[in-house]
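Journal club prep, shared notes

We agreed each person brings one worked example of a sequence with its structure written out as tokens. Mine is UBP16 hydrolase. I'm keeping it raw so we can talk through how to read the token line rather than staring at a rendered picture. Sequence first:
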Amino acid sequence: EVLTEDPEMAFCTLANREDLNPEEGSIYHCLYQFTCNEKLSENNKLLCDVCTQRHCGPKNIKSEKKYVYTNAEKQMLISLAPPVLTLHLKRFQQAGFNLRKVNRHIKFPEVLDLAPFCTVKCKNVAEGNTKVLYSLYGVVEHSGTMRSGHYTAYAKMRSMNKHLSDLVLQGQSPQALETEPVKGQWFHISDTHVQAVSVSKVLSSQAYLLFYERVL
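Then the structure, token by token:
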């Protein structure tokens, strides 16, 4: 379904992206790059039905139409903030004909604000809110190479998130402002071995998958 939006609002976000100034090598920088405004021109021009109809007239049969392509702008933004946010980091790069594992540490926070990447008309955000906050509760880490390796996980044992329950079961977006991470104890799980760890240990891991639960 194609919806016609107000051009002045089409690329607006809940929070100002330009104030973000994300640190390179951080999850914020990854999200910023993923949601950047793209210019579509030359070979990437957009086929415009309105321009084609205006140029050829509505009565022309399809075989006679000369399709009109036009310059355009494209941006990927979040229109519905999920109860659980899963971020999958690309941990490989092309090196000639081979794939190479990327072992660089990507900095990620305990509390993530998704507002700079959400459309200003995000469906399940309370009116007036300029923050969409998520608390980290799980990390998957991969050690090894592209050919072999081992997966381990960090998980937080915590109390029930009432905001999350309301959002999943009743569709109600959180109203109360919670800027602190959900309290709980972190554990490192490797096969059958489970060990309690500090949050600093979790945040220093080379994350492959990140799991956040919504708190606002």
